[in-house]
Amino acid sequence: MTAEDRALLDRFLDMMAAEAGASRNTLTAYRTDLRSAAEVVGEIGTADMAALGRLGAAWSELSPATVARRSAALRRFYGFLQEEGLRADDPSAALPRPATERPLPRILDPHEVDAMFRAAEDRAASGMPLALRNLALIELLYGSGLRATELVSLPRGALRQGQPFLILRGKGAKERLVPISERAFAAVAAWLPHVPGTSAYLFPGGKAHLSRVRLFQLVRTMAADAGIAPDRVSPHVLRHAFATHLLAGGADLRALQALLGHADIATTQIYTHVDSARLVELVNQRHPLAKGRGSA
């Protein structure tokens, strides 16, 4: 990569960090993808459509998802260059556009979630500190839809009595409000006396906080306790359950987007697949044309 391309890449990544709130991992991914493209086309800053057209063959052995991600990075890069007046055209129309299908999230039925809670509550009734911790974890995972990283890194004083929400800095360093149920407050209040006074985190582990890997293991153990196949459950599956069950209960898609912290509502729309029957029923009952057609 030439010095000019490196300078353009640095400007682009600075914009992504400052304006789009991209995380460090996202910025690293963009840098890697753009450098990989430069190995094929040469100078990416001045590459034309013919040069970008070579990427399809060069990336033919990659998965459709990887090709789609790399193409998206380049489209954003050239859009930035054009907006900044650093080039007059946008050659990204020549980029490969593989057909990709977003995988549907694994979900749990409400009765399965209830079974996990019953098992966790039975264990917590013993008063054992780790059982109390596990109940607090599952209450926050399913009751608030937290991401695993957000949950394990909660500070010790994150939940405040009388404040039924958290203000989280989540993916992309974006802040959002997260509702906290009375059940979750009660579970955390029962666990809090067992948190060492020296811990800065609500869920300490090792030298800092509980790891994501350990959380994954704990959730699978709780699933097994409830008679659910452990390989069907993970922290992210409980986040999916939070979303799908809210939607089934009538939640607005935009509200759900805000609760989950999705930057794009297209990400949230994947949850509509789980309740297609309810959506069809909604149209049949509420659409003006549905009324009176049976008697026509």
Describe what this molecule looks like in 3D:
With 296 residues, the protein is mainly alpha-helical. It is 54% helix and 5% strand. It is built from 14 helices and four strands. Strands 1-2 form a two-stranded antiparallel sheet. Strands 3-4 form a two-stranded antiparallel ribbon. A hairpin with a 5-residue loop joins strand 1 and strand 2. The relative contact order is 0.09. The model has no long low-confidence stretch (mean pLDDT 81).
Layout of secondary structure:
Elements: H1 3-18, H2 24-41, H3 49-52, H4 55-58, H5 64-83, H6 110-124, H7 129-144, H8 148-152, E1 165-169, E2 175-179, H9 182-191, E3 204-205, E4 208-209, H10 212-225, H11 235-248, H12 253-260, H13 265-268, H14 276-286
Antiparallel strand pairs: 1-2, 3-4
Helix pairs in contact: 1-2, 2-5, 6-7, 7-9, 7-11
Tell me briefly what this model is.
With 296 residues, the protein is mainly α. The protein has helices spanning 3-18, 24-41, 49-52, 55-58, 64-83, 110-124, 129-144, 148-152, 182-191, 212-225, 235-248, 253-260, 265-268, 276-286, and strands spanning 165-169, 175-179, 204-205, 208-209.
The whole-angstrom Rg is 24 Å
Helix-strand topology string: HHHHHHHHEEHEEHHHHH
The helix fraction, in percent, is 40-55%
Mean pLDDT: 81
Q: Which percent range describes the beta-strand content?
A: under 5%
- What is the chains' assembly state? single chain
Tally of DSSP β-strands: 4
Shape: elongated
Individual helix count = 14
Weakly predicted, low-confidence segments: none
Distance between the termini: 70 Å
Largest sheet: 2 strands, antiparallel
